């Protein structure tokens, strides 16, 4: 599904770019192969004296990473002696120390290049530099790139080199090929687009009168999933965190009106806003104009309004990360002594828009959150298997661009729980826009083998055959679960809207249910659920804790071609259109090991 107002541009070096030539002993270390995005390169050169803060991430022993990932699976699998025995960050850091001598080797290289005043983390070294020094250090050329989505400009490069004898010691360096772009979901486009309750033409069949019983509200969700009569026990330590990016900030005034309108028994509920990218400041009005209506808030308001009402009376924290990179975002969270037991993330980007090296490093950080006892739930995306556009649903292969499905990150990371979307009429069925598919980067994790292999070899055989060559069947499959994602009512900038849709709505709802479960566990002196997937696939699904969605189909590519629309349909069991299914709270609660 296309995102309103977005035109995907090809990043290409223009003719007046000056090229750097590698020093003796240097070889290309990392590059961004597929650069189609909303970032367009500007013709302006970058002032060589421009300051830049660099972070070098150090390599860790592969055997230690594998051992850590196995420990995470063990502590997340009911019945395992290690189940629920989560780790402190100091314990994780002790396991994931950099390779022997990696820190010394990299520091010696940096000092030899005239750099100093280093700041050290467990697996990273940060320092200040200039563009001129950095271009020499990395044998690259930095350029300015502007986002057509946000009008923001960043300084990046598409590839960089390192001395060959340092390749073993370094995982990645940023900022280099990492673009701070998180796709705004369709629902946010509509929520901020106007004050009217208008639908995207593709979803005209969902258009309802604002007072229609088809509207999705907190009360309707609670009744649908069976937690309407649940009384959350006292658990003061239980928290849920919502991650916000770009300029999105949830608004207290909109929440207050939402509570009055849709949850009058919870009007004393609230949230804490943490400006993680702005030294703790979390503006409730535009800092330049002073007008609350100048703030971007549609996505953030949706998330907070449904987590606050879905988890009351537990604490909600909205983290505003601005344009911080994924690595800096996750480093910030992991640096906290106390973390929310549940995190909801409604943002993502196509896997191809980052290097495999970067995706692996970020995914390891998500695994660390799981080991800390945090359940991370992420929206699966709103573009089906790629996009309705025949021109955009393409992946770079050498100099050519070929039709390929475009999986969404971080949903493709095996250590998060990906949430798809359903439409709700008299029953739930898979939404046509719900993102799903198979990763090109990550192999299928063991916990998925039984359910996903059954889909690939039996239940989904016709779709698999029809889509052959467009995806990697052995890749990490997503989404894991699903929830209603259409016709949500929110309050944004004081205006009621009941036409909001997207997996950005589904993820906070499922995360809220997990928060309720965590509250009960913590009140009984038990650990939080932590990384959910082994429990979901190996225990809860077999116990009937998820409603199997067997109707609906997600959108695909080749809309205008004779082959028709490629994509996946909902079938019995796991499928890319609906995952394992939607939540059944009573059964989930009864099957918490």
From TrEMBL:
Listed GO biological process terms: proteolysis
Domain Peptidase S53 residue range list: 215-593
CDD domains from the UniProt entry: Peptidases_S53, Pro-peptidase_S53
GO cellular component, one term: extracellular region
Positions annotated to bind Ca(2+): 548-549, 573, 575
Subcellular location per the Swiss-Prot or TrEMBL entry: Secreted, Extracellular space
Details of cofactor binding: Binds 1 Ca(2+) ion per subunit.
Example GO molecular function: tripeptidyl-peptidase activity
Major localization listed first in the record, in broad terms: secreted
Signal peptide span: 1-22
Swiss-Prot/TrEMBL cofactor(s): Ca(2+)
Span list, region Disordered: 190-215
Key words of the record: Calcium, Hydrolase, Metal-binding, Protease, Serine protease, Signal, Zymogen
Catalytic-site annotation from UniProt: 299 (charge relay system), 303 (charge relay system), 504 (charge relay system)
Protein name, UniProt field: Polynucleotide 3'-phosphatase
Species in which this protein is naturally found: Orbilia ellipsospora
Gene symbol of the encoding locus: TPP1
């Amino acid at each position: 599904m296309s995102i309103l107002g977005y035109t995907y541009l090809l990043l290409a070096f223009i003719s007046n770019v000056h090229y750097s030539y590698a020093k003796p002993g240097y070889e290309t270390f990392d590059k961004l192969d597929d650069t189609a995005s909303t970032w367009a390169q500007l013709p302006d050169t970058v002032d060589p004296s421009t300051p830049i803060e660099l972070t070098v991430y150090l390599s860790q022993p592969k055997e230690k990473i594998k051992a850590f990932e196995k420990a995470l699976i063990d502590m997340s699998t009911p019945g395992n002696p290690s189940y629920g025995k989560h780790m402190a960050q100091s314990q994780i850091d002790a396991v994931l120390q950099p390779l022997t001598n990696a820190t010394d080797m990299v520091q010696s290289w940096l000092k030899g290049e005239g750099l100093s005043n280093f700041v050290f983390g467990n697996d990273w070294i940060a320092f200040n530099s200039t563009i001129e020094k950095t271009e020499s250090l990395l044998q690259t050329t930095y350029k300015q790139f502007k986002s057509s989505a946000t009008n923001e400009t960043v300084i990046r490069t598409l590839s960089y080199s390192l001395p060959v004898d340092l390749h073993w010691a370094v995982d990645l360096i940023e900022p280099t090929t990492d673009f701070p772009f998180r796709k705004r979901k369709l629902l946010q486009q509509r929520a901020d687009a106007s004050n009217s309750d208008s639908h995207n033409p593709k979803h005209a069949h969902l258009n309802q009168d604002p007072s229609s019983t088809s509207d999705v509200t907190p009360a309707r969700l609670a009744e649908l999933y069976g937690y309407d009569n649940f009384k959350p026990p006292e658990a003061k330590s239980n928290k849920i965190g919502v991650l916000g990016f770009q300029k999105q900030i949830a608004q207290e005034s909109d929440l207050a009106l939402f509570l009055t309108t849709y949850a009058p028994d919870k009007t004393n509920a609230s949230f804490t806003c943490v400006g993680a990218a702005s030294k703790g400041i979390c503006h409730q009005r535009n800092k330049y104009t002073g007008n609350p209506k100048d703030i971007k808030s549609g996505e953030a308001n949706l998330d907070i309004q449904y987590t606050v009402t879905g988890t009351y009376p537990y604490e909600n924290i909205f983290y505003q990360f601005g344009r911080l990179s994924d690595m800096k975002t996750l480093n910030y969270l992991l640096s906290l002594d106390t973390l929310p037991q549940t995190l909801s993330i409604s943002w993502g980007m196509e896997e191809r828009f980052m290097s495999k090296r970067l995706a692996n490093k970020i995914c390891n950080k998500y695994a660390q959150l799981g080991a800390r006892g945090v359940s991370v739930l992420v929206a699966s995306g709103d573009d089906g298997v790629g996009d309705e556009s025949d021109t955009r649903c393409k992946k770079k292969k050498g100099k050519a661009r070929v039709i390929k499905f475009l999986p969404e990150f971080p949903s493709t990371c095996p250590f998060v729980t990906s949430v798809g979307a359903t439409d709700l009429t008299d029953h739930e069925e898979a939404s046509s826009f719900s993102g799903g598919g198979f990763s090109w980067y990550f192999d299928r994790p063991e916990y998925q083998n039984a359910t996903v292999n059954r889909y690939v070899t039996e239940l989904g055989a016709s779709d698999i055959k029809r889509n052959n060559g467009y995806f990697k069947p052995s890749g990490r499959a997503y989404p894991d679960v699903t929830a209603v994602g259409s016709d949500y009512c929110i309050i944004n900038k004081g205006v009621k809207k009941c036409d909001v849709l997207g997996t950005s709505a589904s993820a906070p709802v499922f995360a809220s249910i997990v928060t309720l479960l965590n509250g009960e566990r913590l009140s009984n002196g038990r650990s939080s659920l932590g990384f959910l997937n082994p429990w979901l696939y190996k225990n809860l699904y077999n116990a009937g804790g998820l409603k199997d969605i067997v109707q609906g189909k997600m959108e695909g590519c080749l809309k205008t071609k004779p082959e028709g629309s490629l994509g996946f349909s909902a079938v019995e069991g796991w499928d890319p259109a609906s995952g394992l299914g939607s939540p059944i709270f009573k059964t989930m609660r009864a099957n918490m090991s």
